[in-house]
Design brief:
Layout lengths: L1 H13 L9 H11 L7 H13 L4 E3 L14 E3 H7 L4 H13 L4 E5 L5 H9 L4 E6 L2 H13 L5 E5 L2 H5 L9 E4 L5 H11 L8 E5 L5 H11 L6 E4 L3 E5 L7 E4 L3
Parallel strand pairs: 3-4, 3-6, 4-5, 6-7, 8-10
Antiparallel strand pairs: 1-2, 7-9, 8-9
Length: 257
């Protein structure tokens, strides 16, 4: 926790908003997407999804394949507590919705389904988008499949298993967006990044969750943003976002989102 606090204070000192951003692409992304305060009817559905999960007292036996949990000491966890402590925050969920909508995302790969909060938001942004989401724990996967069915969500495929094994057959696909929200370990994150690089197009976007989870995750983020194929990176503290737009000069931004 101390590492996150110190990192956040440093982030505040060097972060900015749209002022001073000279890239038209990034400027418009910040002003028209990040800072878009206009009401969205989908936000009501996002709240309803959250509410349903927070009221669910069902206990699930969780198999952690990644870095584990800082909140839960037991592998038996209630859905309601997981929704409060594990899923994407409302702020992140709404921003994820806006990003998918603003960038006109049509194909998504998500590493780390969990309770499907982020998946649901991306679906709302474009119900026609094809979303493939991977969950390591079979019991969570089964539960979330049931939730998606309850909410009548279409075009979502949940794959279950170790990320390393599941993503290998997917590398011949192309994805507009890949959301890395599972194993928060340095080497695993770098391995997933390298494995999935062939799936990118010029307009693809990769989002890495919890880049300040640990010193190792921050090191992974630094390596990723400086990769030769990455042209633009945005650090929002809770996310690290990279683009592969060859028409852009290489620039790194630290933005308060």
């Amino acid at each position: 926790m101390l590492y996150q606090i110190i990192s956040y204070l440093k982030f505040l000192l060097r972060s900015t908003n749209q002022h001073g951003v000279h890239s038209p692409f990034v400027y418009h992304l910040i002003t028209k997407c990040f800072y878009d305060k206009s009401p969205q009817s989908a936000y009501k559905s996002i709240r309803s999804f959250y509410k349903k999960l927070r009221k669910n007292k069902l206990k699930i036996d969780v198999k952690d394949l990644g870095s584990g949990s800082r909140v839960f000491k037991s592998n038996q966890r209630s859905v309601s507590k997981m929704a409060r402590n594990v899923g994407s925050s409302k702020k992140e969920t709404k921003l994820l919705f806006r990003l998918v909508k603003y960038l006109d995302i049509n194909t998504v790969l998500e590493l780390g389904t969990s309770l499907g909060i982020g998946t649901h938001a991306m679906h709302l942004a474009n119900p026609e988008a094809k979303i493939t989401t991977i969950e390591g724990c079979p019991n969570i996967s089964d539960f979330t499949k049931g939730t998606f069915k309850l909410f009548n969500l279409k075009n979502i495929e949940i794959l279950t298993g170790d990320f390393n094994n599941v993503i290998k057959p997917l590398t011949t696909n192309k994805y507009d967006l890949i959301y890395f929200d599972g194993n928060h370990q340095k080497q695993a994150t770098l391995d997933y990044f390298e494995t999935l690089l062939p799936t990118t197009t010029n307009d693809s976007i990769f989002i890495f969750d919890d880049i300040y989870w640990s010193k190792g995750m921050t090191e992974a983020w630094e390596i990723i943003k400086n990769h030769s194929q990455v042209t633009v990176s945005i650090n929002t503290f809770f996310w690290g976002i990279v683009f592969f737009r060859q028409e852009q000069k290489k620039e790194h931004f630290t933005i308060r989102a």
